[in-house]
Amino acid sequence: MRVHGRVRTGLDFRSILTNVMAMAETTLPNTADAGLEVRTQFVRNRNALLARADFGEMFVDYYLHLSANQIKVAPEHDAMFKRAIAAFTLHCASRPWKEMTAWTINFQQPLVNLFLTGDNETGAITGRVFDENVKVGPENLFYADVVRGREPKRRSAVTFTGSDPLAAAEKFYTQSEQRGARFFQLGEEEFALVSEHPDCDLPWFAALTADEVKTLEPKETLALMERRIYRWHCGCNQERMMEVLAPTMKADPEGLFAGDPKVEIRCPRCGARHAITREALEAFVAGAKER
Predict the structure, then answer these.
(1) Global pTM?
(2) What is the 3-state secondary structure (H, E, C) of 127-168?
(3) How many Å from the N-terminal Cα to the C-terminal Cα in the chain?
């Protein structure tokens, strides 16, 4: 979080993940916005699922979010994050409806964390780049947190090599999902995911290229499964930010505000700026005690 122009490290990355998965009740996306359509199709006779979308509109919304919140991302990290957005959204579109997912992709070279979270029930996708206070480790790590309905949260973690988020996601599928997945960039902003289903034609699957995926329809029999709409949207609000600040407020209010009447915090999920007054936070904490 950022307080009085200074960067504080009160939230480590595990705390961020805990807060993210607890922040389910947020402001909902505006369904009047067209959003991004992801089409999923079953490739008959090959037993594979194809998910495909053009991410141009979502990338525009992501850049508008950066501009509105004065967030600067290094070009190298920005390029990686856009590929991660594509992989994550296609993954969500191929998963059950009542599922909330968060990915944390830790790269050691360059040293950066990419964080993404999505809610299939609302179609909200958001995330951010963390390039400060990134933990140095012996290898890259990919964490996936999943909440399905009222079931307990499930977490998996895998290691991977390289600096491509698409390759990292493929390794996650192989090791954690126990099935293959291939991600392809079909155009400047168009991406596709082809994933294994039982009895998949594995030689065909392994030999696929981006050019072949572009022209699957005339060559293969495709059955439309779903059309899902996703939007770049976090839904963070003042109440949720006060939930994040409440433990620090209870433990060290003077250290939190340092004599100032308000504190600025960046949302742990998307980096959006929120200004919280001391008076409002005191009232929130007092109300929480009464409830």
Answers:
(1) 0.87
(2) EEEECCCCCCCCCEEEEEEEEECCCCCEEEEEEECCCCHHHH
(3) 27
Residue whose C-alpha is closest to residue 76's, from 110, 104, 114: 110
- Please give the structure tokens belonging to residue 219: 């060559």
Residue 146 identity (one-letter amino acid):
V
Residue owning tokens 């050019």: 211
**Under 8 Å between Cβ of 257 and 278:** yes
- Of 147, 143, 71, the C-alpha closest to 107 is 143
Pinpoint the alpha helices (H) of the chain: 13-22, 56-68, 75-93, 165-172, 202-207, 210-214, 216-219, 238-251, 253-257, 278-290
Q: Is 165 within 8 Å of 77 (Cβ atoms)?
A: no
Q: How confident is the model over 102-148, as pLDDT tens digits?
A: 999 999 999 999 999 999 999 999 999 999 999 999 999 999 999 98
* 206 Cβ neighbours under 8 A, 6+ residues apart: 180
Residue 175 φ/ψ, nearest 5 degrees: -90, -40
Q: Is the peptide bond before 110 cis (omega within 30 degrees of 0)?
A: yes
Which pLDDT tens digit goes with each residue over 230-251?
A: 999 998 888 888 988 999 999 9
The answer to whether residues 123 and 138 touch, using CB atoms and an 8 Å cutoff, is no
Domains located in the chain, CATH noted: 1-27+236-291 (no CATH), 29-232 (3.55.30.10)
